[in-house]
C-alpha cells in the first residue's frame, strides 16, 4: 500500500530540517574564524557566486576578483606578483532574496520565508535568513500577512519597482545633478542595479523609470566618482 501523502510530506520536511541543522552546525565551526566564504546564487545570472559572511552572520559581502596576466600589487610592505586581488563589498541581501521570492511567486500564494528560500543547488541560502536586519527590509519587496501566528510573504512587483526606483535616485547626490543630466545618472544607476536583478526585472525597471530604449552608442558616463548612499546595492561604487 502506498504511503499516505501527508506522511511523505512529513518525511521530506524532516530531511530538510536535518539538512538545515547540519548546515548550521558546519557554519558554527567555520564562523569561529570570523569570516566565512559561501557559494550562493547570483541574482542576475542565476549561476553560483562567492559571498562572504562576517562573524556571527552580521553582514553579507560579495566577492569580486580582479585579475590580469601582467600585474602586481603592494600588500603592506611586500609586492605580490600574481596580479590577483579579491574585493569584498557589502551587498543588500534583498537582491539575493528577490531571486527566491520571484521564483516562489509563480505559485501565487503567501508562504513562510523558510519555505521560499530553498535551494538544492545552493543550500547555504538559508544563511540569508539569519541576517539580523532582513525581516525589517522585507516590506520593500513583499506583501505580508500572518497565519497561525507565523508571518507569510508574497512577492510584490509594485513595491519592488518602487524600492528599485529609490535606489536609482539615491545613486547620486543633489550637487552632481547641477552639472550633469539627471537622466544620465539614472541610466547608469539602472545599469549598476541590473547587475543584481534578473533580466526581466531589469527590463520592467527600465520601463518604470521611463528610460530611453538602448541604442548602439551610449553617451560617455559621468566622469565623477559617485558614492552610493545607505540604500544602494553596495555601500560604495565608482563608475
From TrEMBL:
Annotated InterPro entries: RNase_H2_suB, RNase_H2_suB_wHTH, Rnh202_N
Domain Ribonuclease H2 subunit B wHTH intervals: 95-170
Principal subcellular localization: nucleus
Domain Rnh202 triple barrel: 29-92
Keyword Amino-acid biosynthesis annotated: no
The UniProt record lists the keyword Nucleus: yes
One GO BP: RNA catabolic process
GO cellular component terms, A-Z: nucleoplasm; ribonuclease H2 complex
Keyword annotations: Nucleus
Purpose of the protein: Non catalytic subunit of RNase H2, an endonuclease that specifically degrades the RNA of RNA:DNA hybrids. Participates in DNA replication, possibly by mediating the removal of lagging-strand Okazaki fragment RNA primers during DNA replication. Mediates the excision of single ribonucleotides from DNA:RNA duplexes.
Family from the record: Belongs to the RNase H2 subunit B family.
Protein's recorded name: Ribonuclease H2 subunit B
Organism from which the protein derives: Rhinopithecus roxellana (Golden snub-nosed monkey)
Amino acid at each position: 500500500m502506498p504511503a499516505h501523502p501527508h506522511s511523505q510530506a512529513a518525511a521530506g520536511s524532516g530531511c530538510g530540517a536535518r539538512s538545515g541543522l547540519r548546515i548550521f552546525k558546519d557554519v558554527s565551526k567555520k564562523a569561529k574564524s570570523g569570516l566565512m566564504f559561501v557559494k550562493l546564487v547570483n541574482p542576475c545570472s542565476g549561476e553560483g557566486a562567492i559571498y562572504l559572511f562576517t562573524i556571527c552572520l552580521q553582514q553579507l559581502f560579495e566577492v569580486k576578483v580582479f585579475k590580469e596576466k601582467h600585474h602586481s600589487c603592494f600588500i603592506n610592505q611586500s609586492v605580490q606578483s600574481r596580479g590577483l586581488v579579491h574585493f569584498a563589498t557589502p551587498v543588500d541581501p534583498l537582491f539575493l532574496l528577490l531571486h527566491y521570492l520571484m521564483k516562489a511567486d509563480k505559485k501565487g500564494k503567501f508562504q513562510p520565508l523558510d519555505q521560499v528560500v530553498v535551494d538544492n543547488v545552493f543550500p547555504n541560502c538559508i544563511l540569508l535568513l539569519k541576517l539580523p536586519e532582513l525581516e525589517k527590509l522585507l516590506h520593500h519587496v513583499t506583501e505580508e500577512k500572518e497565519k497561525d501566528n507565523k508571518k507569510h510573504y508574497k512577492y510584490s512587483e509594485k513595491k519592488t519597482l518602487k524600492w528599485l526606483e529609490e535606489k536609482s535616485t539615491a545613486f547620486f547626490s543633489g550637487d552632481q545633478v547641477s552639472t550633469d543630466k539627471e537622466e544620465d545618472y539614472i541610466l547608469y544607476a539602472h545599469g549598476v542595479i541590473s547587475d543584481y536583478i534578473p533580466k526581466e526585472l531589469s527590463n520592467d525597471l527600465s520601463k518604470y523609470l521611463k528610460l530611453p530604449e538602448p541604442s548602439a552608442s551610449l553617451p560617455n558616463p559621468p566622469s565623477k566618482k559617485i558614492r552610493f548612499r545607505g540604500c544602494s546595492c553596495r555601500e560604495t561604487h565608482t563608475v
